[in-house]
Design a protein that fits this description.
Blueprint (H helix, E strand, L loop, with lengths): L1 H10 L1 H16 L4 H9 L4 H13 L6 H14 L2 H16 L7 H6 L1 H17 L3 H15 L1 E3 L4 E2 L4 E3 L4 E3 L4 E2 L4 E3 L3 E3 L11 E2 L4 E2 L4 E3 L3 E2 L4 E2 L4 E2 L7 E4 L4 E5 L5 H4 L9
Helix pairs in contact: 1-2, 2-3, 4-5, 6-8, 8-9
Length: 269
């Protein structure tokens, strides 16, 4: 067993760590044994565990857990990048969220992580032209997690959504890699136009709680959007914007705002 786990750590260190933490969790709290076994220890890899967890959460009287699980398994089988992105999301959440003390927490308990993984399957379905099924995933994610992400929205790796309530991401939005955002963020449009109408968020961006970024505008790499801001114009890379409407108030303050998670304004522009 020890030799097998050692090999697994070399091949898939994230999954190996989750398995170890799951075993520890069962020893520490036996009442969680059923949950942990069904959600983690019963599965041969992270892909299957993700399919189980997402399907369990989204199932209802209109679509059974078994059918949803088959859909998720199909998506993960066709596109291994889905689970690779999930691994990056788990690592990002552990590194940036002070309330996250184990890798298994996002998989079991964090609705921001779970909603992003459901969206990744919905986006795969959208790209397969299975749009009605993709809309079902969007609908159920909104109902279950309180997060509304259009299936066509493109979202990168290493995403951390803290608290995650009331997140809205529109159809033509693009979110880069290693982005962090807090609850009540909106990446929305400004009217009824049907073309490219939603924000493009660069890599390494930090978006504070309640911030609204509206329209087909870009938020440059490694920038910060202060909590409660309403962004209506382009944001240059490596800057901080704040206010209603948002204005540049200074530099980003560090090389990787999404990792540092510093949301205070230090000095003026």
């Amino acid at each position: 067993m020890a030799e097998t786990r050692a090999k697994l750590r070399e091949i898939d260190p994230v999954w190996a760590r989750i398995l170890t933490e799951a075993e520890d969790a069962v020893r520490e709290e036996p009442l969680l044994g059923g949950l942990v076994h069904y959600s983690i220890l019963h599965h041969p890899n992270l892909e299957r565990a993700l399919s189980y967890r997402v399907s369990l959460k989204l199932a209802n009287g209109e679509m059974s857990e078994q059918i949803l699980r088959e859909i998720c398994d199909e998506a993960h089988g066709a596109d291994p990048d889905l689970a690779m992105a999930a691994r990056a999301d788990i690592t990002a959440t552990y590194e940036r969220d002070p309330a996250c003390h184990r890798f298994l927490q996002p998989l079991l308990f964090f609705k921001g992580f779970q909603a992003i993984q459901a969206h990744r399957v919905a986006h795969w379905l959208w790209n397969q032209d299975r749009k009605d099924l993709a809309y079902f995933f969007q609908m159920r994610s909104s109902e279950v997690f309180g997060i509304d992400i259009h299936p066509a929205a493109r979202i990168g790796r290493g995403i951390m959504i803290d608290h995650a309530h009331s997140i809205v991401i529109g159809e033509t939005a693009v979110v880069g890699d290693n982005v962090s955002m807090l609850h009540s963020v909106t990446l929305g449009g400004t009217g009824k136009e049907e073309e490219d109408r939603h924000p493009k968020i660069g890599n390494g961006v930090l978006i504070g709680a309640g911030a609204k970024v509206l329209g087909n505008i870009s938020v440059g790499h490694c920038s910060r959007v202060a909590a409660g801001s309403v962004v209506l114009e382009e944001v240059p890379p490596c800057t901080t914007v704040a206010g209603v409407p948002a204005r540049i108030v200074g530099k980003a303050g560090c090389d990787q705002p999404s990792i540092e998670m510093d949301q205070l304004l230090h000095g003026k522009a």
